[in-house]
Amino acid sequence: MTQDNTIMPDESHAEVSAETDTQTLNKIIEEAKAESEKNLAGWKRTQADLENLKKRFEQERSDIIAFGNSSLWKKLLPVIDDFDRAFGSLPPDIADNTWAKGIELIYQKLQGVMAAEGLRMIETTGKHFDPKLHDAYCQQEGPEGIVITEVEKGYLYKGEVLRPAKVTVGNGIENSGLKCDTDTDLTE
User: Fold this and answer.
1) Would you place residue 17 in the very low, low, confident or very high pLDDT band (cuts 50, 70, 90)?
2) From the CB of residue 29, how many other CB atoms can be counted at a distance below 10 Å?
3) Angle ∠(106,71,89) on CA atoms, nearest 5
């Protein structure tokens, strides 16, 4: 006791109390850091999820547009076939006509648009028959498994088969006399 009858705290008691306060504060700081790291990790996961969601939505949007475009191209293929047939049967006496040349230029522009949009013809004649790209219309004499003639053009849209090419395929027998009727109208 002191002269004014007040009790002085023991110095060792003060040191223990300060040490306990420091330990408590350190524990609170560590818990706050852990909570902060947990929140940061959660925020980063959420941010990554958001970015993945944006990418997925963009991919789905792109797929929907591609599907819509492929549907449109499928509807336009018969028109393109008609152009090919028209130019294939153009009488020689009007082939140099300016009107016919103008229509041919329009068709060439259409082919340019087709190429720019990712639509391209499937190669056929002289190639090995590929059931993923070709639809065998019939077999005829010729080298086995080789496309002899193209009956109807096939198309790829952005690397995917939009319409397989209808082809005649060699049967491996030369001079068999087997011929296909390629005059049949395939649009029926």
Assistant:
1) confident
2) 10
3) 40
